[in-house]
Specification:
The chain has about 325 residues and is α/β, with parallel strands linked by helices. The chain is built from 11 helices and 10 strands. Strands 1, 2, 3, 4, 7 and 10 form a 6-stranded mixed sheet that branches. Strands 5-6 form a two-stranded antiparallel sheet. The longest helix has 19 residues.
C-alpha cells in the first residue's frame, strides 16, 4: 500500500492545504454475520487497519482538530472513530488497534451501557431469533409493517430493512414502544450484552483511546425540541465524564446526515455547550475552513487494498 502514499500526499499535503480523513466504524464482529455480510468483522478490520496505517499518519482526534485549525496537520492526516458503544469495540477492535499502534475515539450513547440495547438491535435480534416462519406486525398499525415471511436469511434481512425504515424517524418514546412490541411478537430471548459495560469504557480510556459523547438514547436530534435535544447531549456527556473522570470534549450526531438527522440549531447547540468538535456522516475530508462542528467522515467498503485506496483518493478529492 505504500504506492498510495505519493498520490495521497498530493491530495492531502501538510500545512495550510491539508485535508483530514476521518474513518467511521460501528461494530467489529468476532466473525462474519450471514445476516449482515457487509458488517466489519475482526479479520476485515485487521486488514483495514494495516492499509490505513501504511497510507496515513493516524493521530488522535483531539490533536487533529487542533492542528487542522492551526494549519499544522501533517501530510495524509487521518483519525479513526467508532459510534454507539458496542461491546465488540472493546473486545475485538481495541486489541487490533493496539497491535497496529493506532488510536481511535469512541463516541458512546450512554443510556445503553451495562445491559442496554439500541432500538435497531432490538428489531434485528427479534427478527433474527423469531421462531415462527412468519412475522405478523399488522396489529401495530404502522404503515409498511405487515406480515413478513422469514423462511431464509434473505427474507429475514428484507424484513429487518423494511421495519427499520418504517420506524427510524419516529419520536423516541413511540419508537421505543414499537420496538418493544416487535420484540413481544418475536417471542424470543434477546441479548443484553451487545453494548459496553462501564468498566470497558474506562479501559478504553486507560488504553489511550478517546471517549466522545453521542447523546443518551441515540435520538434523531432534528425530531426533538430544543430542550429535549440539549438534555440528550448534555446528560450523555455528563454520564461519560462521571465514568472516565475527565471532560468529554467531542461529539457525534446520531445517524449524522446533515439537514436530515440534525439541523443548524443542533450545530449551534453543540458549539454553545463547549465541545471542541463534532462529527457527522457526510462524505468528504475536512480542510481549512471546514466547520469543526460538522467534520465529515468516510470509510471505503472495498475488499481489496487497491480499490480501497482509490476510493479514498476520490473522497479526498471531493469539493
Amino acid at each position: 500500500m505504500r504506492w498510495a502514499r505519493l498520490p495521497m500526499t498530493l491530495l492531502s499535503p501538510a500545512g495550510a492545504k491539508a485535508r483530514l480523513s476521518i474513518f467511521i466504524f460501528h461494530r467489529v464482529l468476532p466473525e462474519a454475520d450471514p445476516l449482515f455480510p457487509g458488517e466489519v468483522d475482526a479479520k476485515r478490520f485487521d486488514r483495514v487497519c494495516g492499509w490505513v496505517g501504511s497510507m496515513f499518519d493516524v493521530m488522535p482526534l483531539d490533536e487533529a482538530v487542533r492542528r487542522l485549525g492551526a494549519g499544522t496537520l501533517p501530510a495524509r492526516a487521518a483519525c479513526i472513530t467508532f459510534d454507539d458503544g458496542y461491546a465488540d469495540n472493546h473486545e475485538q477492535a481495541l486489541p487490533i488497534l493496539q497491535r497496529h499502534g493506532l488510536r481511535a475515539i469512541f463516541y458512546i450513547a450512554s443510556g445503553f451501557l451495562d445491559g442496554g440495547r439500541m432500538w435497531n438491535d432490538t428489531v434485528i435480534e427479534a427478527v433474527r431469533r423469531a421462531a415462527s416462519p412468519t412475522f405478523d406486525l399488522r396489529e401495530l398499525a404502522v404503515h409498511a409493517l405487515g406480515r413478513f415471511a422469514l423462511n431464509d436469511i434473505a427474507a429475514r434481512r428484507r424484513a429487518i430493512d423494511q421495519i427499520l425504515v418504517a420506524i427510524k424517524h419516529r419520536n423516541p418514546p413511540e419508537r421505543a414502544a414499537l420496538t418493544e412490541a416487535i420484540a413481544q411478537v418475536a417471542g424470543a430471548s434477546l441479548p443484553n450484552d451487545l453494548m459496553m459495560r462501564t468498566e470497558q469504557v474506562r479501559d478504553l480510556r486507560r488504553s489511550g483511546m478517546l471517549i466522545g459523547a453521542h447523546t443518551v438514547s441515540h435520538p434523531i436530534l432534528a425530531t426533538l425540541d430544543a430542550t429535549s435535544a440539549r438534555l440528550e447531549i448534555d446528560q450523555g456527556r455528563r454520564a461519560l465524564e462521571a465514568i472516565i473522570g475527565e471532560p468529554v470534549r467531542h461529539f457525534a450526531y446520531p445517524n449524522g446526515k446533515p439537514g436530515q438527522d440534525y439541523v443548524e440549531a443542533n450545530v449551534a447547540m453543540v458549539r454553545d455547550m463547549g465541545f471542541d468538535s463534532a462529527v457527522c456522516t457526510a462524505w468528504g475530508a475536512a480542510r481549512s475552513g471546514t466547520d469543526p462542528f460538522q467534520l465529515p467522515r468516510f470509510t471505503p467498503w472495498d475488499e481489496t487494498p487497491g480499490r480501497f485506496a482509490v476510493r479514498l483518493m476520490r473522497n479526498l478529492a471531493r469539493h
